């Protein structure tokens, strides 16, 4: 049996997740609003909401429904079980304190970036990024540093599946240009994001790799353009990030982290 062959999704499960994600985006909604948003029959939405509510995944307040805090338990447990989180959370906090800016740890899953953990310094800029947020890897410094330390054929598959969506005028949307940028990233050890994800925001990212050089995740520091100019990105911040990821990699290797907590 070919376990990698495409299978048809279980429709009821797919609908349940669509309802949950829509509630997340809307904060709260009625049965009628969900049915309209998802183009489903109100009876279908109601049945799914009843089951989700009974299991604690959704809560009801009068006619309004919203996502339940049971998801928080699953999310925290999932994050805490990730070896990258356990070996980077303190280092991310240190980076935020030293720079006064926003520091993130990002990992790749199913070809997308996931904001695993972030810390704010004394002068951080607030953006849309939040723990658990899915991103496109090519749009961010941390994501590009991950792509730069993955095999070319893997990066090509990610592009084939997810494309190279544009989020600002500076986002790289051409595959050839992206591969050129990834080559530069490998040579200098860090990736740059110059207003490619948020207008007015620059960032530097560095990959956390295993002994073979394969990227397991990445950390980044972001700041307004006025506070993070190219010369700082290429010197002080880059050196700080490289020093930090080297420390993380040593800790993971000699503490037995990669063997004890294997990634999927």
From TrEMBL:
Domain IclR-ED residues, every copy: 70-254
InterPro entries assigned to the protein according to its UniProt record, in alphabetical order: ArsR-like_HTH, GAF-like_dom_sf, HTH_MetabolicPath_Reg, Tscrpt_reg_IclR_C, Tscrpt_reg_IclR_N, WH-like_DNA-bd_sf, WH_DNA-bd_sf
Residue ranges of domain HTH iclR-type in the record: 10-69
Name of the protein in question: IclR family transcriptional regulator
Lineage of origin: Archaea, Methanobacteriati, Methanobacteriota, Stenosarchaea group, Halobacteria
Transmembrane segments: none
GO BP annotations listed: negative regulation of DNA-templated transcription
Entry keywords, A to Z: DNA-binding, Transcription, Transcription regulation
GO molecular function: DNA binding; DNA-binding transcription factor activity
Family annotation (PROSITE patterns): HTH_ICLR, ICLR_ED
